[in-house]
TrEMBL record:
PROSITE patterns: HTH_ICLR, ICLR_ED. It comes from Actinocorallia libanotica. Residues 7-66 form the HTH iclR-type domain. Pfam families: HTH_IclR, IclR_C. Keywords: DNA-binding, Transcription, Transcription regulation. Residues 67-236 form the IclR-ED domain. This is IclR family transcriptional regulator NdgR. InterPro entries: GAF-like_dom_sf (IPR029016), HTH_MetabolicPath_Reg (IPR050707), Tscrpt_reg_IclR_C (IPR014757), Tscrpt_reg_IclR_N (IPR005471), WH-like_DNA-bd_sf (IPR036388), WH_DNA-bd_sf (IPR036390).
Amino acid sequence: MDNSSGVGVLDKAVLVLNALEAGPASLAQLVSATGLARPTAHRLAVALEHHRIVHRDTQGRFILGPRLAELAVAAGEDRLLAIAQPVLTQLRDLTGESAQLYRRQGDVRVCVAAAERSSGLRDTVPVGAALPMTAGSAAQILLAWEEPDRLHRGLRGAKFTAASLASVRRRNWAQSVGEREPGVGSVSAPVRGSGGRVIAAISVSGPLERLSRSPGRVHAAPVVAAAERISEAMRRGAQA
């Protein structure tokens, strides 16, 4: 099938964006994924970076930029956020803890939606906050199903291990006890898109005095159920 629009430079820019959908890429990886000449791939990536459609991570690799998320929100077409927000609210009300949705963006995870506990001790993570991929249950979820090379790179400096991520994959949820912040615990589960790919992590978080030293025992079931509701809604939308 010919996917050419007849506008060569636009088609080549889309090739770059399609390549970055799979994750961060060096210039050499962009050239390999797109089949573009090295100078062309570099010129297009830098031009897209100028418009914030492409960004660089801390290792200098190209990643999808913040402008794409801004445009999706402005157009009201971000299905994941539209589906997730009422589920987050239900999860907060069920558990009594703050609930968040995270997406990975290069070397950080970004809180893209949240439902905050209204009173008492809480773990407040504002929408738009960028947190490290080296600590926390959501980071474990967003890393656990990565390709082996990306997974092992992600473990550098992490507060969790390859063995703990293997456990995450087996049970389909992760917990954190003071990894990101002392005295705070969390439980997360994977949200999956088409093909079963992990596209986000849904979490609840709060003080350990409520979540205990085994927060998964307390909240894993409702968090996993919430993740499955969002995933199923995403699958139905993709088939429509």
